[in-house]
Amino acid sequence: MGTDAEIIVVKDPPALAETAARTIVDEAREAVVTRGRFTIALAGGATPRETYERLALPPLRDEMSWDRTWVFFGDERAVGPDDPESNYRMAREALLSRVPIAPDRIVRMRGEADDRDAAAADYARTLADVFQTRRGELPRFDLVLLGLGVDGHTASLFPGSPVLKEVFRPVAAVHAAAAALPERLTLTFPVLNAASRVLFLVTGAEKAKVVKTVLGDEALLPAGMVRPAGGRLTWLLDRAAAALLPAAGGG
Questions:
Q1: Phi, psi of 5 (to 5 degrees)
Q2: Is residue 8 packed enough to be buried (19+ CB in 10 Å), middle (13-18) or exposed (0-12)?
Q3: 10 Å Cβ neighbour count for 223?
Q4: Cβ partners under 8 Å of residue 151, min gap 6
Q5: Alpha helices, DSSP H only, in the chain?
Q6: How far apart are CA 42 and CA 31, in angstroms?
Q7: Do 160 and 220 form a contact (C-beta atoms < 8 A)?
Q8: Boundaries of every domain in the chain
Q9: What is the pTM of this model?
Q10: Which of 21, 33, 209, 249 is in Cβ range 3.0-4.6 Å of 54 for a Cys bridge?
């Protein structure tokens, strides 16, 4: 990946959550001042939950312009909004139900849809409506949050998936090759790489090896393919996740 990624290493998961939540507030403030609103795509998984919980509490909660905020999702499993595996449910419980954001500003992916290709197209149309993009244009998120799997996947962009080669559609259905993997909906590389800023949140020693691989110059894993054109790419790591990087330190 080279030097175009900003790497920030903090002490532990609580420090990461605090830093990430503060970053969201700062990005939101700048976006509202310059563009009149803030658009964010949330990540699922265990690591972002603590970030969302911090953001739902004072003082950060009160520093957000919730009436100017639009919330989207980077990916979703093929489950309903109340399923324990739902990324939307996690975000709702940790953050969205605890802050004064209008329900129509929260745009979830319909993971439970029988036709997930149609659900992906619906989500893409909603993106186009909110961002007022014309045909062939991509929405430009102010901030996209992403996680990292031990296999190098991010959002629901898995190694070997045909969706990795998508060059036009901003949203795609992921049809699992293995029965053990649930089908999903995901934002694609074109829209991730059109973002103003992408922030990876990664904690834990079990991620250290894949972090080293993805941040290497030869990285071909999906997470290494996130390179915002004209945007800012930040990897926020705790010390355990950064342990195999050169000069891994901590804040």
A1: -100, 135
A2: middle
A3: 26
A4: 158, 159, 210, 221
A5: 13-35, 46-55, 60-63, 87-94, 116-131, 189-192, 208-214
A6: 16
A7: no
A8: 5-238
A9: 0.95
A10: 21
Q: What would the pLDDT profile of 230-243 be if each residue is shown by its tens digit?
A: 999 999 999 999 99
End-to-end C-alpha distance for the chain, whole angstroms: 23
Name the CA radius of gyration of the chain, rounded: 17
Per-residue pLDDT band at 144 (split at 50, 70, 90): very high
Q: What's the pLDDT tens digit per position in 54-108?
A: 999 999 999 999 999 999 999 999 999 999 999 999 999 999 999 999 999 999 9
Q: Residue 3's pLDDT is what?
A: 45
Residues in the chain, total: 251
The two structure tokens encoding residue 87: 């990324």
Locate 143 and state its tokens.
């901030």
What's the token pair of residue 201? 């949140």
Q: How far apart are CA 163 and CA 174, in angstroms?
A: 7
